[in-house]
């Protein structure tokens, strides 16, 4: 057997560079890295030698680097991914939040945090967490509950099994998610004689499991007997590249489609069978259909509480819940009849099983009434001194968008408003991280989208609260010449949670800056801050000025940041559904007691 002598880090980098997807592209498109004493001598030296074949990107925060890597994989439908490496200690634990985000959203990313010395000679090494009752534990054990596969590399030859296991998880349609290979720092630099065959290029096929015949027959039977079915399109429609199959299925059988946050843009907004967003942030048209549906066919959805209205939305007597999902865990949720298979394969097989069966089309008046109600909210406001609303901001961005625009967001007010109001014209033109709703994903995520599809017009919507949490990758975007547009809506605090606080009977407290101990602070000049990090920045004083600033993005050489003061209070009053947020049973405030009474009434009304 022919061998080659390499360090463990060199072997890991060489192996990762040899992995391919079915298009012949490198599956690991690059590595994000911040070096420290736990990875600079091992992985750092190895990555430098392979920088032409496996690019290394440097960010300013380990969590946001991982966000960029995750957004990259999401935008490409999980066909490619990235790795992220850090030193031990805070660098590693900074990435745990991002790992949770990837886990919730079923997105592939490879975490390579440095770890303590396997030989334990210098224990306790700088930044080492000492667990007094467990000599094997390190800070990297924090990754265990938020990754799909965890391993600690304490000997070089362990990579022979650990690396293929990692890629198996990252390319598996059902198990797909983050992987953590905690890499002991002395092991990284230890040499071993590797079989040269280990580094032969390998193509990772992303299989499409077909439906089980028994499950297919059961689901087809339920749909054949239904009179008012509805399809709930989730993110799995996108990751399976099943948008065309969904359209064909819906059109063949006349079944209306509603969209989750992750599933939005599965059908064009103006498709006659697209009845709009569903659930807590849903359209009245979509929610009315779901409330009356006698068969609910979820396709690639986790049936999150925002989708189901905390399981109060699907309330027709005797309704049947069907879950077409590649993951058995999701396919069996809440007593659903499972159809465990790939979304595209499942839709095609189910269509064949239904044959010529067609249902009565939805009443077009439902959709017309929805847009008649909400379109005025996004229209240009009359001239005046009133602060613009988030709905008016969305309208301005929508009017500036075109076929290549990707709108993206993650947390705060904008996800709900965009779910209701944004008109997505093509698949993957709406990029929302709402599985974990992680503040700070936005700017790094926009950078990741641009890296995945640099010809797209990427527009990031972010509130001042999320911007303050994590903005450092704006400097990275500027250095890379990333042509992204960042629209900062400054409502001077956490406006979304302030509204929730009031809705549950609470007094305005600690959310808006004016109601916190920061009330006396000077206002933040976000435009100056963005410009200081290398972005082209402008402060817009009105919706008209916002539209004028958006017109400048075609000529921008890097990130363009537009800041606009907005009103923190208004939200779209139409559509929506109840969301369960527990209200205190006892309070001195009459508003809280009234909210608790309403809460208990909704609990009693929850369908079986």
Task: Give a nutshell description of this structure.
With 608 residues, the chain is an alpha/beta fold. The chain is 37% helix and 18% strand. Strands 4-3-5-6-8-7 form a six-stranded parallel sheet, with helices on both faces. Strands 13-12-11-14-15-16 form a six-stranded parallel sheet, with helices on both faces.
Walk me through this protein's architecture.
This protein is of the alpha/beta class. It folds into 3 domains: 201 residues, Thiamin diphosphate (ThDP)-binding fold, Pyr/PP domains (Rossmann fold), CATH 3.40.50.970; 154 residues, TPP-binding domain (Rossmann fold, 3-Layer(aba) Sandwich), CATH 3.40.50.1220; 187 residues, Thiamin diphosphate (ThDP)-binding fold, Pyr/PP domains (Rossmann fold), CATH 3.40.50. The chain is 37% helix and 18% strand. It has 24 helices and 22 strands. The strands form 5 sheets. Strands 4-3-5-6-8-7 form a 6-stranded parallel sheet, with helices on both faces. The N and C termini lie far apart (64 Å). The mean pLDDT is 96.
Q: Note poorly predicted spans.
A: none
For the largest beta-sheet, the strand count, sense and barrel status come to: 6 strands, parallel
CATH class division of the largest domain = Alpha Beta
Describe the strand arrangement of the main beta sheet, using strand numbers.
Answer: 4-3-5-6-8-7
Number of domains: 3
Blueprint of the fold:
Elements: E1 3-7, H1 8-17, E2 19-20, E3 28-33, H2 40-49, E4 56-57, H3 62-75, E5 81-86, H4 90-93, H5 96-104, E6 109-115, E7 149-153, H6 159-171, E8 178-184, H7 185-188, E9 191-195, E10 202-203, H8 213-225, E11 229-233, H9 236-239, H10 243-253, E12 257-259, E13 274-277, H11 284-292, E14 295-299, H12 305-308, E15 320-325, H13 328-331, E16 337-340, H14 343-354, H15 364-378, H16 390-400, E17 405-409, H17 413-421, E18 430-432, H18 441-452, E19 457-463, H19 464-469, H20 473-480, E20 484-490, H21 495-503, H22 526-532, E21 536-540, H23 543-550, E22 560-565, H24 590-605
């Amino acid at each position: 057997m022919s061998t080659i002598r390499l360090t463990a880090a060199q072997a890991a980098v060489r192996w990762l560079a040899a992995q391919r997807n079915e298009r012949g592209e490198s599956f690991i498109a690059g590595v994000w890295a911040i070096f420290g004493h736990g990875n600079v001598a091992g992985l750092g030296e190895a990555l430098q030698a392979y920088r032409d074949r496996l690019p290394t990107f440097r960010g300013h925060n380990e969590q946001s680097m991982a966000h960029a890597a995750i957004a990259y994989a999401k935008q490409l439908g999980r066909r490619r991914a990235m790795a992220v490496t850090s030193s031990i200690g805070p660098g590693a634990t900074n990435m745990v939040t991002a790992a949770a985000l990837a886990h919730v959203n079923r997105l592939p990313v490879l975490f390579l945090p440095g770890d303590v010395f396997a030989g334990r000679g210098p224990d306790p090494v700088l930044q080492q967490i000492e667990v007094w009752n467990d000599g094997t534990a390190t800070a990297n054990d924090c990754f265990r509950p938020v990754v799909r596969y965890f391993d600690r590399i304490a000997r070089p030859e362990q990579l022979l099994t650990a690396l293929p296991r990692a890629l198996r998880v990252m390319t598996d349609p059902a198990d797909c998610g983050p992987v953590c290979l905690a890499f002991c720092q002395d092991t990284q630099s230890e040499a071993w004689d590797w079989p040269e065959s280990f580094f032969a290029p390998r193509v990772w096929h992303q299989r499409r499991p077909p439906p089980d015949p028994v499950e297919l027959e059961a689901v087809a039977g339920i749909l054949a007997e239904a009179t008012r079915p509805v399809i709930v399109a989730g993110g799995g429609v996108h990751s399976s590249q099943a948008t065309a199959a969904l359209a064909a299925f819906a059109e063949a059988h006349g079944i209306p489609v509603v969209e989750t946050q992750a599933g939005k843009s599965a059908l064009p907004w103006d498709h006659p069978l697209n009845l709009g967003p569903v659930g807590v942030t849903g359209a009245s048209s979509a929610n009315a259909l779901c409330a009356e549906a006698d068969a609910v066919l979820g396709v690639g959805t986790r049936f999150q509480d925002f989708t189901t209205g905390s399981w109060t939305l699907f309330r027709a007597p005797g309704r049947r819940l069907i879950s077409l999902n590649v993951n058995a865990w999701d396919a069996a949720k809440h007593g659903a009849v499972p159809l465990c298979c790939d979304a595209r394969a499942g839709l095609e097989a189910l269509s064949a099983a239904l044959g010529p069966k067609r249902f009565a089309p939805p009443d077009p008046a439902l959709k017309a009434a929805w847009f008649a109600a909400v379109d005025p909210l996004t229209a240009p406001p009359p001239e005046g001194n009133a602060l613009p609303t988030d709905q008016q901001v969305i309208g301005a961005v929508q009017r500036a968008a075109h076929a290549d625009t990707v709108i993206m967001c993650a947390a705060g007010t904008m996800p709900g408003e965009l779910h209701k109001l944004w008109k997505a014209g093509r698949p993957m033109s709406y990029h929302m991280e709402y599985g974990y709703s992680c503040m700070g994903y936005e700017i790094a995520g926009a950078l990741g989208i641009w890296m995945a599809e640099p010809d797209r017009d990427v527009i990031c919507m972010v509130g001042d609260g999320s911007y303050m949490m994590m903005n450092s990758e704006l400097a990275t975007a500027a250095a890379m010449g990333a042509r992204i547009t960042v629209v900062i809506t400054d409502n001077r605090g956490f406006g979304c949670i302030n509204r929730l606080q009031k809705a549950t009977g609470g007094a305005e407290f600690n959310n808006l800056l004016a109601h916190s101990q920061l009330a006396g602070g000077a206002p933040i000049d976000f435009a100056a801050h963005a410009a200081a990090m290398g972005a082209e920045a402008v402060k817009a004083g009105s919706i008209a000025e916002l539209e004028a600033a958006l017109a400048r993005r075609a000529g921008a050489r890097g990130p363009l940041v537009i800041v606009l003061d907005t009103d923190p209070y208004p939200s779209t009053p139409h559509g929506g559904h109840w969301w369960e947020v527990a209200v205190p049973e006892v309070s001195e405030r009459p508003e809280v007691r009234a909210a608790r009474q309403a809460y208990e009434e909704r609990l009693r009304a929850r369908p079986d």
